[in-house]
Fold this sequence. Notes:
The chain is α/β, with parallel strands linked by helices and 282 residues long. The protein folds into 2 domains: 8-57, Roll (Spermidine Synthase, Chain: A, domain 2), CATH 2.30.140.10; 62-277, Vaccinia Virus protein VP39 (Rossmann fold). The protein is built from 9 helices and 12 strands. The chain has helices spanning 62-76, 92-97, 113-122, 124-127, 143-149, 177-185, 204-215, 251-260, 270-277, and strands spanning 8-12, 18-31, 36-42, 46-51, 54-58, 82-87, 105-110, 136-140, 154-160, 187-196, 220-228, 233-241. It has a 7-stranded mixed β-sheet, sandwiched between helices.
Amino acid sequence: xxxxxxxxxxxxxxxxxxxxxxxSKVIVDKKTKYQHVIIAxxxxxxxxLVLDGYIxxxxxxxxxxxxxxxxxxxxxxxNPQDVLIIGGGEGATLREVLxxxxxxxxxxxDIDGELLDIAKEYLSExxxxxxxxxxxxxxxxxxxxxxxxxxxxxxxxxxDLIDPYIAxxxxxxxxxxxxxxxxxxxxxxxxxxxxQAGNSFFYKDVYQKVLSNxxxxxxxxxxxxxxxxxxxxSVNYILGSLANDPxxxxxxxxxxxxxxxNVKTRFYSPKIxxxxxxxxxx
Length: 282
């Protein structure tokens, strides 16, 4: 709250800069076992989900983030049927995965069951019923532990966690090489992994470490990014693939797959995909 009594979210963008967002209404303010959860109405971004002081999603721009995280990997895979999501508490990543008609099972693992309950009740605009889809399996447990112990195999693994540079993050081990090695072992032969990796401008060293870890594990590695207004910076994504290169897809193939799988998007498109991954060697 500022001197005039206006309620504000003051979020670190870098070690030195902050994003200040005026709040019109607080809907939820609760400390779970793992984190401080706030859901609020804001003037610029509509309803937002805030975890430990960092905006994770907003109604007005979440589709940029979630479509960018999900669809490059799923369209690069020729027939994604089994998908694992680590994190993704608001259910929007799960929503985008389930748009693909090929999906038979989507397992979502999040450590914070209280957050999931809050999201189910207050963030229906984001999850749009994805938690209740018969293809969804929602597990409340440690994502690291699940990956280390599972006997399941997946076509695509999507890692949707808080940024790797947040100090003492409960997600820190999920950005290490050891974790990516294990991810590789639970992928099918044409498997793909994708992770959001924070911001490479403000946190270059941390980003480069994550990128290096993935390069040491996967034969095909691609980087891409998208500006997210409610974050105040561009989010970087890193995709690691065992066989298929997103840069080899052409616009006609992506367009045909979108029709075949009945995937409708607000941002992601064949043009966007090619802008991210165009093979400069051709």
